[in-house]
Structures are given as structure tokens and as C-alpha cells.
Design goal:
Shape: globular
Number of strands: 14
Structural class: mainly beta
Order of helices and strands: EEEEEEHEEHEEEEEEH
Distance between the termini: 17 Å
Radius of gyration: 18 Å
Amino acid sequence: MNEKVSDQYEIFWDNFEKNSPSVMLKFGVKSKVIKLHRIENGKRRILNFESQGDALGNKYVTLIGEWTNIDDNNPDAGSVLSLKLKNVHSSSIRLMRVIFRVENGLDKFLRKVNKKDISFLSNGFQSWSESRSYKLNDKPFHSWLPIASLMSDNLSNLPTDNYGSFCSELFTMLADTSCNKSILIGQMKEFNQFIYLNAILKKTKKTKRHLEVIFDLGRKLIGKGEEIELDKLFFIKGDIFDVQKR
């Protein structure tokens, strides 16, 4: 993970953790989003988070992550983020989602490029679902036929009706088509969760431009003291065609 401050396309993915993640838990018929807080450990590559406690002060989960290089012989080849989540509560929990909101560097990236040249790749949910790229000012396609939406869309991650707000499944690419520079983000095996990669690329008064990485675990029951591994994420930067060959 080489940091080249002069690189105008640099998004420091090893600073991914600076935007605190959160978890969504199921309590009966209700769900609740609980923020995780970083525990400083002095190690740049190792991430530690823990949740806030319940009414009795019992914490729900801890999340441990580690950054590694895709290829130790070539630090510029890309980075991999590995994550482990542990239930530290006094009873079992039902985990719906783990959510990372990534802002670091994205505004800088978009300020230095022509907005007409920015492209977001939206990968479809099913093999027959539409996969296409969108420009920054596009409005995402969403079928107005309910039956078509049921057959092709992910009902847990539906497109919005907002310009510059896009969603993708499994992987996505953010690119500057004027110079073929791109950032590829995706899920690695074992494919034990659904992963959604969503982007809010139009800045508003209420929110900054950001990417959202969501692990969907579908109300998975995690026993007291149980630890699970989340699927790894890869982050690759470079020429549009080159990163796809990797």
C-alpha cells in the first residue's frame, strides 16, 4: 500500500477504517444500527473496533481487520482487507449487516477530474440482471414493472431514484474515462455473504460523496463467544483494462 501523495487519483484504502463501521442487529421484529468505535493499537495494518454496550453496559461485537498486499513482491498490485467479527455479548445475537462508509480521498478524487468523465460500474444481482456503467449525473435504472424487479433486482439493495446514487453487487469500478484511471473494489471467496457496493457521488448539504460497503448476513444467528470470518475485500487501482486482467 504505497502512499504517493502526488498521485491525484490516490484514495488511501488503508485509511478505510477512519470512517467508523456499524452493525445492524435484529431484536425481535425491530432492527437497530449500532456504531463501532476504533480501539487504537498503534499498528497501521491492524484494525480493532468494538460496539457500544446495551442498557447494562454489555458490548455486542468486536471487529478485527488486517490489511495485506495482494502480492508482497509488488506493493502496487493492490490491497486485501480481512475481517473477523466476534459476539462478545452475554447472549446470542442476530446479525443483519456490517456496514462501512468510505469517504477518505473520494472528494479529492472527484475534485480533480471532469465530472463528465467519471463512470461507475453497476454489476447486476443475477446473471440475467442488467450490468452497466453510469455517469455522475445519471439516474439509475429501475424497472417500473414489479414482476421484472422481483426477477432481476436485489430487493435488499434496490436502486434509488436519485441522480448520482448507484448500487452494485459483488464488485464495482470507479473510473476516469478521460485517462483510463480506475479503482476496482470487490469480494473474494468464499462468498459466504452478499456484498453490496453503493456510491453516493453527488455532494449535497447533508452528505459528502462516499462509497458504502455492506456485508449482508441475513439475520445470521451468532452464539455467545462465536467468531465469524467475513469475506475478504480487494482494492486495486490502475489502468481500466489492466485491473480487469488481474
